């Protein structure tokens, strides 16, 4: 076992315990960024001047009327920026734009003594606009050839030979929607300036170092004059990886110019209309299978809806391409990617970061093709799994290690779920109920862990031991409710060999741990845990030398367990507090900076080849649904999940992440339907689903009636801290099983073997039209084109399945 993964005697990791802030959460005492306003004197409030047009050039901006509003102190415009007027890492996001790029784009900010004064002041600002043509939907952009950013191409094998060797070839297309983060805490920042002109910014951000960097270049000052702290977030899900930076820069600019603290917080409507979403995608594809249903070749093009600026669209697209294989070996592949530029908010990171989009494409293909091949969807998937010992690599060239776990998990889920018996029961139920159908679907996932950009795979920590034996840890990761801080405290306590109550965690700050990566890519525990372990090991080695001198032994024979240093084979012992106090008087350094870098990664973005991931997180889910044939309404009856988290650092936290990720994934795939006004009227480009009343989120009513989550046992990950695996993002994709169950239930209303196309999100409306298509049209069996969702002429703002599946003559003739 590797040094990194080996656990000492009586470790604190692996013990189920509640979230470190759970008590504060449920009692309402946990502080968030905006709560700090009440503790700050003379705060000014920032409010955006939004332009409610999808696209246009500003011809006049008059701020004088706002200054006449009582309580308005200042209006911030581009003329006030002392540094670079840009809030993006790609330098394509003007903080104060002269061209409105989406409906609700903020062009100026008003600072007021009260929030109401700032709001009234913003309403008084006069903006004249020369309206320009706008592209609102992904389809609009594709037809107009509106693209930006990289154009990656991933190739492996000989695709022409692969199709030539295929007995069955299918083609189709698939368009699916994005997703709103809908974190409970909206974007917020509080900026203060001290007597030396240095800025301290409290920000609800997943990436404090990048917030620091953006504020620094907007203000034209070096980074050491800007300190960013993230106390905690009320949810992030990727939506606070890039997008908080500009908002923090507005607050910082206001504080710098007025000398007073400036508070910034979007209300819910502003947050929904001004911040980016998960990228919606359009895919065209051609796939070939041999006579046994094994994939021979895949040719696909994925187009991501990037919105008006690049943001993180390029790495999101790259990860989508890297995950189109999911758990399946595709020997010959060519997958191209493009980023569409539309006049909507700039889409950004969202849990899974492109992985769910790529994986959804292949799962949709297999779900649609299985009936055409005359195979059970479960059998088709299983036949195409990566196999151990075969030397199989992903389409980008990374060997798939632990492939045997895919089949192990797959079989365990079936056993745990009583799969065979329940499928017989469902068949009997469906035969007896013509207007209600049930289905049980099973899908698996393989998700790569690490940032695609190798340089981001590093973490830092600062660990302090005080004279009384108490320990304070600082690390570069941020807490957004996912339990990262809980795990990091467990890692520190385990490494030092002390009880958990001895350890406290400080808020994440850029002046404690510099140059950190975002808490993203499911890498928070791997990177920061490795750094904390490194720092604590330095301290432990120093303390072992002190303990050895006190116990009359060699340091190699001393162990610190549960806060007591003991010598092997002896009754002598030294309490932790006494050990620390002795070390202090011996002038032993009781602080250490830790560092961790993920080894073994390499990636060439130009050739799209390499090994960008440290390992793969694996899992499988079985979902049973019941669907009403009159309305398309459905309920999730039961979910069984087996998920690979290696040796869990904190089982209770991990199970919570799996449950939450699954439900969020189910929301994306079945409920959450983003809609924009696509008319040519005055509200063109307006987000129509800008409240919880119109944007449906999963709630208690969507939870499975029975929900079973099991962590894979004997699953040590040699390359990660204490043998654990990441758990933040992968579980979201377990929800593919919900969508596939809905597809199979809709198909059950039609003749045997019908291929059903299903929109995403698979809303009750979409399921209803899929049922109608299954009932009325069995043309899929002879290869004719269909479109199950758009039968009513409803295009869904580009969110419809828009899918057509065709079978070539070779397939029809059984060649």
The structure class reads alpha+beta
State the assembly state of the protein chains.
single chain
Give start-end ranges of low-pLDDT stretches: 779-804, 806-815
Give the percentage of residues in beta strands.
Answer: 15-25%
> What does the radius of gyration come to?
28 Å
Query: Order of strands in the sheet with the most strands?
Result: 3-5-1-12-9-10-11-20
The biggest sheet, with number of strands, parallel, antiparallel or mixed sense and barrel status, is:
8 strands, mixed
Distance between the termini: 51 Å
Mean pLDDT: 95
Got a strand count?
30
**How would you sum up the global shape?**
globular
Tally of separate helices: 20
Share of helix among residues?
25-40%
Pfam family, one: Ald_Xan_dh_C
GO molecular function: xanthine dehydrogenase activity
Domain Aldehyde oxidase/xanthine dehydrogenase a/b hammerhead: 27-133
Protein name: Xanthine dehydrogenase molybdopterin binding subunit
């Amino acid at each position: 076992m590797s040094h990194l993964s080996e656990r000492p005697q009586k470790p604190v990791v692996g013990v189920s315990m509640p979230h470190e802030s759970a008590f504060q959460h449920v009692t309402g005492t946990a502080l968030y960024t905006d709560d700090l306003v009440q503790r700050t004197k003379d705060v000014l409030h920032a409010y955006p001047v939004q332009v409610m047009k999808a696209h246009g050039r500003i011809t006049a901006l008059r701020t004088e009327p706002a200054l006449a509003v009582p309580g308005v102190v200042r209006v911030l415009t581009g003329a006030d920026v002392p540094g670079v007027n840009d809030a993006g890492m790609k330098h394509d996001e003007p903080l104060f734009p002269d061209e409105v790029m989406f409906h609700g784009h903020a062009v100026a900010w008003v600072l007021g003594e009260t929030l109401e004064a700032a709001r009234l002041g913003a309403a008084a600002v006069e903006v004249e606009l020369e309206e320009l043509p706008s592209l609102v939907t992904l389809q609009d952009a594709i037809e107009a050839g509106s693209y930006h950013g990289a154009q990656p191409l991933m190739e492996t094998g000989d695709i022409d030979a692969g199709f030539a060797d295929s007995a069955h070839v299918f083609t189709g297309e698939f368009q699916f929607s994005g997703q709103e983060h809908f974190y409970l805490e909206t974007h917020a920042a509080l900026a203060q300036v001290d007597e030396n002109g240095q800025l301290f910014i409290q920000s609800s951000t997943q990436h404090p170092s990048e917030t620091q960097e953006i504020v620094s270049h907007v203000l034209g000052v070096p980074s050491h004059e800007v300190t960013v702290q993230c106390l905690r977030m009320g949810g992030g899900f990727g939506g606070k990886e890039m997008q908080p930076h500009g908002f923090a820069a507005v607050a910082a600019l206001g504080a710098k110019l007025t000398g007073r603290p400036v508070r910034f917080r979007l209300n819910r409507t502003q947050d929904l209309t001004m911040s980016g979403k998960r990228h919606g995608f359009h895919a065209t594809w051609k796939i070939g299978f041999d006579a046994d249903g094994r994939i021979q070749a895949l040719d696909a093009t994925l187009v991501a809806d990037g919105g008006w600026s690049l943001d993180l669209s390029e790495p999101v697209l790259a990860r989508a391409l890297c995950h189109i294989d999911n758990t399946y070996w595709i020997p010959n592949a060519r997958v191209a990617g493009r980023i569409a530029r539309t006049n909507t908010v700039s889409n950004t990171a969202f849990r899974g970061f492109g992985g769910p989009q790529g994986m959804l494409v292949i799962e949709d293909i297999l779900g649609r093709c299985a009936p055409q091949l005359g195979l059970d969807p479960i059998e088709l998937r299983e036949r195409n799994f990566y196999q151990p010992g075969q030397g199989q690599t992903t389409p980008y060239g990374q060997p798939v290690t632990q492939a045997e776990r895919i089949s192990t998990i797959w079989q365990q889920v079936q056993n745990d779920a009583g799969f065979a018996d329940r499928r017989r029961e469902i068949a009997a139920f469906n035969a007896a109920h013509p207007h209600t159908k049930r289905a049980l679907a099973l899908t698996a996932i393989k998700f790569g862990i690490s940032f695609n950009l190798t340089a981001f795979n590093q973490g830092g920590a600062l660990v302090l031991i005080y004279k009384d034996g108490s320990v304070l840890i600082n690390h570069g990761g941020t807490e957004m409710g996912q339990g990262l801080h809980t795990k990091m405290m467990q890692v520190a306590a385990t490494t030092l060999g002390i009880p958990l109550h001895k350890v406290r965690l400080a808020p994440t700050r850029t002046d404690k741990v510099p140059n950190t990566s975002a808490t993203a890519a499911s890498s928070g525990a791997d990177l920061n845990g490795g750094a904390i372990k490194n720092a604590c090991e330095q301290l432990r080695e120093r303390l072992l030398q002190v303990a050895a001198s006190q116990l009359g032994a060699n340091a190699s024979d001393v162990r610190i367990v549960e806060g007591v240093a003991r010598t092997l084979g002896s009754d002598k012992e030294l309490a932790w507090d006494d050990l620390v106090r002795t070390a202090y008087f011996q002038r032993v350094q009781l602080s250490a900076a830790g560092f961790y870098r993920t080894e073994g990664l390499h990636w060439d973005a130009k050739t799209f080849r390499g090994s960008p991931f440290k390992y793969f997180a694996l899992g499988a889910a079985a979902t049973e649904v019941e669907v009403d044939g009159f309305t398309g309404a459905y309920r999730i009856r039961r979910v069984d999940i087996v998920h690979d988290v290696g040796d869990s650092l904190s089982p209770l936290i991990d199970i919570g992440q799996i449950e939450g990720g699954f439900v969020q994934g189910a929301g994306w795939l079945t409920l959450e339907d983003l809609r924009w006004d696509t008319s040519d009227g005055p509200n063109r480009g307006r987000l129509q689903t800008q409240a919880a009343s119109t944007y449906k989120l999963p709630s208690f009513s969507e939870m499975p009636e029975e929900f079973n989550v099991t962590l894979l046992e004997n699953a040590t990950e040699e390359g990660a801290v204490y043998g654990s695996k990441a758990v933040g993002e992968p579980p979201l994709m377990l929800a593919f099983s919900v969508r596939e169950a809905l597809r199979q239930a809709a198909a059950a209303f039609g003749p045997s073997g019908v291929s059903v196309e299903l929109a995403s999100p698979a809303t009750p409306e979409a399921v209803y039209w899929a049922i109608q298509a299954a009932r009325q049209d069995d043309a899929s069996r002879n290869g004719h084109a269909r479109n199950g969702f758009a039968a009513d002429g409803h295009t869904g703002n580009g969110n419809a399945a828009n899918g057509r599946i065709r079978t070539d003559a070779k397939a029809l003739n059984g060649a």
